[in-house]
Amino acid sequence: MSALSLRLPDSIHRHIKELASKEGVSINQFIASAVAEKVSAIATEEYLLACAQRADKTAFQTILATVPKREPLTGDEL
User: Fold this and answer.
1) CA-CA distance, 8 to 14, in Å (whole number)?
2) Where are the domains of the chain?
3) Can you tell me the distance from the alpha carbon of 75 to that of 67, in angstroms, rounded to the nearest whole number?
4) pTM of the model
């Protein structure tokens, strides 16, 4: 495990301290979890972009054309 020195504005530090306390974890655990979530979000976006680049748009349109045309369900109009 690595150590990291991090400077935060006092207001953010206060919020982190409050949230970590509410979650029942240490500030260190809270920050580690938040960073892990961000890393996961970025990795997921990169993965989805790579998948989209490999997509066969013609095949997608062909499959989409087989979907029956019907009115949207109530509440799904937008």
Assistant:
1) 10
2) 10-64
3) 20
4) 0.68
